[in-house]
Amino acid sequence: MNVRIEGVSLDVSGRRLVEDVTIDVPSGSTLGVVGPNGSGKSTLLRALYRELQPSTGAVLVDDVEVGARSLLDHARAVAALAQQESLELDFTVREVVSLGRHPHPRHADTDDAVIREAMELTEVSDLAGRSVLTLSGGERQRVMIARALAQATPVLVLDEPTNHLDLRHQLRVVARIAASARTVLVALHDLNLAVSICDQIAVMQHGRVVACGDPGTVLQPALIERVYGIRPDLVSHPESGRPQLLFTPDLQVSPDERQAHVPS
Ligand SMILES: Nc1ncnc2c1ncn2[C@@H]1O[C@H](COP(=O)(O)OP(=O)(O)OP(=O)(O)O)[C@@H](O)[C@H]1O
User: Is Nucleotide-binding found in the keyword set (predicted)?
Assistant: First the structure.
């Protein structure tokens, strides 16, 4: 299913947080949404999973406005991992993942196979019988991703799925989801991961998309410096030839700033 975000503006509590965003996400492709803290990534994605209604414009999934579908039909089309999912119930990992099957008619064999596959991809099968209340941050995050996968939707919205994930899971889990047949919209902070796994990247700043397109073309040092205030060096990956960004930490601290951080 394709996704089209068409002239979308979003207001929350009387404040415009996203302004006039238009992006086409072809069926089966992955869109990375990047940008500094507070640039509007989560707010934009919330319109995809119907937590926010556009003030102007429309979000279309498979050419149908998301608000025009019944909640059940929407849940069969779009699954989402929000940034702050609470998990306070004393459920086992398998029970939480199986919640993803809720929008579908019960079919034990299919449900088992889809749940098993989701748990394998996110590498939580070994945790199946554990209470989610006992999990580490990264383990919980992988369970929440597995729940979204178990919903088996053609469109997947992931808001910072790499939160809490270690290097292996950042590189394996999220990359494998992006490579799947699903249409994926994913907010990411790691620009090198975005370059590696996304078909196109939208860069947000102050609620607007300031650049969108092929990752290698969009993520140029000058644009990154303008948006983030940090200038990276651009190199080619020695094996894939893909562009990679090298960042140098800003270690220059003035004596005054250094003093300000010392507790008295
Ligand atoms: N309910 C709200 N009321 C008022 N302002 C809000 C509300 N929710 C978000 N904002 C503001 O909207 C802006 C965009 O927030 P959003 O969460 O979309 O940013 P983000 O790009 O996802 O940031 P981050 O990288 O920190 O997750 C921020 O300035 C935020 O403070």
Answer: yes
Q: Would you state the pLDDT for residue 240?
A: 83
Partner residues linked to 158 by β-bridges: 81, 186
Count of CB atoms within 10 A of residue 36's CB?
16
Best residue among 8, 18, 42, 52 to mutate for probing ligand 1, ranked by most atoms within 8 Å of CB: 42
What tokens does 230 get? Answer: 């940090």
The pLDDT, as a whole number, for residue 136 is 94
For the Cβ of 41 lying below 6 angstroms from any atom of ligand 1, the answer is yes
263 has a pLDDT exceeding 90: no
| Span 73-129, pLDDT tens digits | 999 999 999 987 777 788 999 999 999 998 888 887 788 899 999 999 999 999 999
The rounded Å distance from CA 144 to ligand 1 centre is 22
100 to each of 22, 97, 152, 153, 203, how far by Cα in Å?
A: 30, 6, 8, 10, 30
Structural domains of the chain sorted by starting position, each given as residue range(s) with its CATH number in brackets? 3-215 (3.40.50.300)
Which of 3, 83, 79 lies closest to 37 in space, CA to CA? 83
130 alpha carbon – ligand 1 mean position (Å): 34
